[in-house]
Amino acid sequence: MQEQLRLIKKQAEEDLQKCLTMDQLNEVRIKYLGKKGELTQVLRGMGQLPAEERPLIGQLANEIRDSLENSLSLYSEKIKVKELEKKLRAESIDVTLPGIAPDLGRRHPLHLVLQEIKNIFIGMGFTIEEGPEIELDYYNFEALNIPKDHPARDMQDSFYITPEVLLRTHTSPVQARTMEKTRPYVPVKIIVPGKVYRRDDDATHSPMFHQVEGLVIDKNIRFSDLKGTLLNFARQMFGPEQQIRLRPSFFPFTEPSAEVDISCVMCKGAGCRVCKQTGWLEILGSGMVHPRVLEMGGYDPEEVTGFAFGMGVERITMLKYGLDDMRHLFENDVRFLRQF
Ligand SMILES: [Zn+2]
Fold it and tell me: pLDDT class for 156, splitting at 50, 70, 90?
């Protein structure tokens, strides 16, 4: 019996030495100390021993069990340390490798320019007004002196939702809405930034684009106020050397009306491909508010006068950054957008 116990102890120790993982260690534990383990079997057979042998064998078996349990926990600690080391080695990171920089978002060039336009006009005492993109025909056309059969409607091919409702073709309806809200008080001094929609799609036109409309109404507003405001804007936007040129034009909602050119930002007026050798670039339309529009807005054209202007944000952005195709602005190619 004693011999058998010593043999178990010796074998168990040999088995333990071969263990490399916790799983193998568990197998050894079960093999010797489990319910059907070898040492357990011996301890169970104690009852059949003669009474005088029991204490001695019992003591020996207990010693062997204790020593085996000790060894098991010792090996278990060693294996744990080894497994941890192995895991750490496998997961080690090379801190000298270059990291993956997170992509930072940035503002769209159109928004950068729009913000700049807003800041310039806010600096001149304008406030910002907004209006709906789905607009009534009345505000989009009729209140701006463009009745149903007016040929000017052809200039603005529109997306109609019903015969009386359309996607606004310009930000000008907000003029009419603001006058209705403010009348009979003056001054009105607003800009209206926003999206507008027309049935156009080529290198310089998009079916959706952005405009900034301006409107000033007060006593004694003169054409020179319009010119001074726009010159100030052009110089803040394109540089202090900027010149502007006003050419007679026609808009149904202003009289007189003028197209406004700035000296070419590429050639400084010398003449180049961009300005078609003229030295000038058209950037906006403007004029004195038509008396009929003032009347429909609830103001007395004998009492007050005003001027209005409208510019395309895409056009200004293209000139400012020297872009040749408006569609770049809407394709959402990050390689392009990252440059701003
Ligand atoms: Zn030029």
Answer: low
**Ligand 1 centre and the CA of 238: distance in Å?**
14
In sequence order, which residues have a C-beta less than 8 Å from that of residue 94 and are 6 or more positions away? none
Q: Which among 189, 124, 132, 197 has a CA at the least distance from the CA of 158?
A: 197
**Cα 249 to averaged position of ligand 1 atoms, centre (Å):** 22
- Checking if the pLDDT of 322 tops 90, the result is no
Quickly state the pLDDT bin for 155 (edges 50, 70, 90): low
- Whole-number Å distance, alpha carbon 169 to ligand 1 midpoint, is 29
Q: Which of 188, 252, 258, 172 is nearest to 223 (CA)?
A: 258
Q: At 277, is the pLDDT very low, low, confident or very high (cuts 50, 70, 90)? A: very high
**Model confidence pLDDT, tens digit, residues 161-189:** 998 999 999 999 999 999 999 998 999 99
Cα 79 to ligand 1 centroid, rounded to whole Å = 79
- For residue 43 the two structure tokens come to 């301890």
> 280: CA distance to ligand 1 center in Å?
7
Distance separating alpha carbons of residues 197 and 166, to the nearest angstrom: 9
Asked if residue 255 belongs to a known ligand binding site, the reply is: yes
The Å distance, Cα 263 to ligand 1 centre, comes to 8
Eight-class DSSP state of 213: E
Query: 203: CA distance to ligand 1 center in Å?
Result: 19
Report percent pLDDT > 70 for the chain. 99
Segment 115-135 shows an average pLDDT of: 97
- Do 57 and 46 touch, CB atoms closer than 8 A? yes
Q: At 13, list the tokens.
A: 């120790």
CA-closest candidate to residue 169, choices 194, 198, 129, 145: 198
Gyration radius (Cα) of the chain, Å: 43
